[in-house]
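Let us begin with a simple case.
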Amino acid sequence: MKKRIKNILTKNWFFLILLGIGIFFRLYRLEEFITFLGDQGRDAIIIKRIITFEHFPALGPVSSVGQVFLGPFFYYFMAPFLALFKLDPVGLAFGSFFYSTIGLILAYFILKKIDPKIANLFLVLTTFSWILIHNARFSWNPNLLPYFSFFTLYFMSLFFEKNLIFPFLAGMFFSFSTQLHYLAFLLTPTLILFFLINYKKILKEPLLFIKKISFFIFAFLIFYLPLILFDLKHQFLNIKNFIKLFTHQEIIKSTSYHQRFQETLTNFFNFTFNLKINYFLSFTFFILLFFYFLKKKFFYKKPLFQLIFLSFFVFIFSFSFLNSFRHYHYYNTVYLNFFVILAVFFADFFSINLLTKIFVFIFLIFFINQNQLNYPFKHQKGNFQTKIAQKIAKSIIDNNPKMPYQIVPIPFTEMDGHIRYYLEIMGKRPLSEESSQEGEELYILCYEKECDVLNHPQWQIAAFKNKKIAKIWKVDRVTIYKIIHGR
C-alpha cells in the first residue's frame, strides 16, 4: 500500500505541487476579500429560501441588459454549500472554489490522456491565472462558466462514440452553461461547425446521428424545463425580452464591426495576460494561432481540439457583433478553452529546440508575474464585505424596526441585497424591493456625501407618507436614516 502511494506521488508530483499552489491562491484570506455585494446577497436570499424549503425558484438571475432571466440551475447547485456553512455566505464562496477546483482537476486529466506535456502547460496557466483565481473566490453565476463550457465541448467531442450517454451529457452541460450566462449561447455556432466538419461521419450513419442529436436536445430541454414552464405560463415573456434585446435595444448596433472586433480582441488579451496589449499585437497573435491550428494535422484527428479551437475563434467573431461592454466575465465561456489552445501551441513550440524551450519558460515566468500583480489577497487590508453587511444589518435591528418596514439605497445604482440577506437570517425580513406596500418605517442607506432623504424622488421614498427623520447614524461609509410617519 505504501509503495503504491509512493508510486502515485512520484508519478504525479508536478500535478500535486501545482494543485497545492492553486488551492492556496484560491483560499488564502478568503473571508477578508470575499465579494459579497448586492448580486451575491440577492442570490444568497434565494438559495437560503431553497434550503429552508420556503421557495423553489423556476427562474435564475436576471441579465444586466434587457431583463432576460437565466435558468435556476446555479441556485440549486450552490445550495448545499450555504447549508453546510449554516447560512454563512462564505459557504457560497467555498462552493465556487470547490467546483472550479474539481473542474480544473478533471480538465487536467482529460488533457493528460491526450498529451501529458499539454496537460502540464495547461495546469501552469490555469493555476496562476488571476481571472480563474478571482472567479473561484466568490459566488456569482458567470464564475463557473469556464468549466461548464469546457465540459460541454468535451462531451460533444465524444458525440460520435457508440455510447448515447455522451450526447446527453453534452446537452446537459450546454443547458447548464447557458443558465450561468446567456453568452454561452455563442457556443451554438461552434457545435454547428463541428457537425459540418464531421459531415462524413453523419452521412455514414444518419439515423444514429438523429438519435444522438435527439438525446442532446432532450437533455438540454430537460434541464431548462423550469424556465420553459415559466415562459409557457407567462406568454413567453422571457423569449420576448430576449428577442427585444436584439431588436429594440440595439445590442447589435451601427458602429462598425471592425471597431467592435478590435475592442473584443484587445480586451480579451488584456484580461487574460493582465497586460495592456495594442490591437496590432493582439491581431498578430490571433492570426498566428488561427493558421497554426489550421495547419496542424491533429486538429482533424482530435475532436476535442477541433471544438476548443472553434469555440475560441467563433466566440471572438460572434461577440464582436454585439454592442455591449467588454467586461472580463463576458469572456468566461472561453478562458479555459483558450488556455488549452496556448498549452497546445507552446507544447509544440517547446519541442523544436533549446532556444524555443527557453522562450516557453520565459513566457511562463512572465505570465505568472503579470497575473500575480492582480491577485486580490495581495492587498494589505481586506475589504471584509460580509462583516460590513452584517454590521449594517445589525445596526438596523438594534433600532427595533417596526414591522413591516422597507429599506432603500441611495443612489438607485447601489444595491442592498447583501444587507437584506443578513436582515432576513437575523429574523427581521424587510418588505421586498418590488413591494408596493407602505411600511411602518423606512430605512434609507445613503452612499453619497449628502442625501436629501425627505425630498428624494425614488419611488419607495416618495410614496412614504408624512416623512419624518427619527434617527441618523453611520456604519462604515453608509449613513443610515430611520424614517417614520409624522403625525
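The second case is a distinct protein. As before, the sequence precedes its C-alpha cells.
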Amino acid sequence: MRAVNDVSLTVRPGETLGLVGESGCGKSTLGRLVLRLEDPTAGEIIFEEVDLAPLSRKQMTDVRKKMQVIFQDPYSSLNPRMTVGQIIGEPIGVHGIMPKANINARVAELLQLVGLFPYMALRYPHELSGGQRQRVGIARALAVEPRVIVCDEAVSALDVSIQGQVINLLEDLQQKLGLTYLFIAHDLAVVRHISTRVAVMYLGRIVELASADDLFADPKHPYTRALLAAAPVPDPVVERTRPRTIITGELPSPLNPPAGCVFHPRCPLATEECKQAVPATRELAPGHWAACIHA
C-alpha cells in the first residue's frame, strides 16, 4: 500500500500552497511526511538544501524549530492537563530559545499576537471556545519562530464565522512574519481565498497544479472540474443553470489501486488508453500542470 505515490511539489518561500482532495486521498499523510512525523519509505524532502528524509530524530531537533504544524482538532491537539501558558511556553523551553524567566512575557506577547488576552495563559483548554483553542494552537506553532507551517485542516472543525476570523489571522501573520504555508483542506472556498497556488490530490497522486486563479477559472483535469462543480454557489439562479459533472462510484482502495490513471474508473472521459498507462504530468499552460491524456 502506498498512501502517497510519486508526489513532487515545491513550496516557494512566502507563499501558501493549497492541497485539496477527497478524504483518504493522502493529504494529511503528505503533510506529516514533510514534517517527518512519518518516515518516508523512498524519495527526498528537501528543506533549505538539506534532505530531511535520512535524518535521525536527534538531527531533526534543530529543523523542528523551522517547521511547525497546526492540527485539525483544536481540542485533542492540546494537553488538557496543561494551562494555555504551559502549552505555548513548552516548545520555547524545549528548544532553549530564551531564559525561563522571560517565557511568561513571551507567552503573553504570543497570545496578543493571535488575538487573545494575556490572562488566558492561566486557563485550561476546556475553558476556551473552539476558535480560541485553535488560536492557542497557532500561538504554540509561532512560539519557536518557524519559517514553514503545515496547516492540516486547520479551520474545518470550526464554525463558518470563526473560520473567517482564523483565515484572516493566518493571512495577517503571514504578512507580518514572512511565513510559508502548506494549507491542507477540502473546503474549496477557503482554499481559493488563502492560497497562492493549489495542488489537487487523488488517491495518493497530484493530478493538477496551478495558481489559484488559473485553477478555479480553467480547471484542466476532469477530477478538478468535478470537485468545483460539486461546490455550491451562493446564487440560486447560477446554481440551477450551471453545468454538472457527476462522479459515480466510490474512491478505490489504496490497498488495490487501479492500473493506469487512478481516476479512470470514475472518469467520464476515460478510454481504454487510460487503463493502460499512468499519465505523465504535463504543463498545459505556463505554471499549469495536469496528469491527464485528455486535458
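DSSP finds ten helices and ten strands in the chain. The two ends are 28 Å apart (CA to CA).
Keep these points in mind for the review questions at the end of the chapter.
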